[in-house]
Amino acid sequence: MSKVFTKTLLALCSWSVMTAAMADGVDDLKQFYQSTQAMRANFMQTVFDQKGRKLQEVNGTMLLQRPNKFRWDYQKPYEQQIISDGRQVFLFDIDLQQVTVRTVDKVLGTSPAALLAGGPNVEESFRLTRLLDFEGMQRVQAKPKQKDSGFQVVIISFDHNKLAEMRLVDAFGQSTHIVFSNVEVNPGLNSNQFLFSVPKGVDVVGE
Hints:
By secondary structure, the protein is mostly beta strands.
């Protein structure tokens, strides 16, 4: 498993507004927090280098439940899981047979995960800017206030108030594009889906 892929998982432009009547991506983000307490979707994630050359492509499924519970199952071509039970986050690299454990506050504080699983106080950690609509989607740019967050910017796109895409640029200029599909808002989720038991024989790495 490459370091680029693992970093992208944890990790997981500013233009002026032409008219006051233009859709406001910041409002869409806030509406996302207010109306979306749970979410289920498929995703396709593609990583590009600084020159725009494709490095990796992987797909999978994701679940989200507030507060601070989420699950990302990467299926092809690399099997990997990121699961948060609301207190701890487990990164299970199936190929390496290794689990990395971190506390939620260290992962969510300034990471892109905070934009999805966090709450309305997101502006405490990020500077939000509305962007021009693109291909009919409303967009918001989020820049972390802390310099050591590991990435430069995240752009979140909404299509009719539903999460559609995320674009991330890390500290090294590499970019990640995540496209969501089959998005279900507020489905009935079982809390057990956000629990993780370390498999027998797997190495555990903590902080």
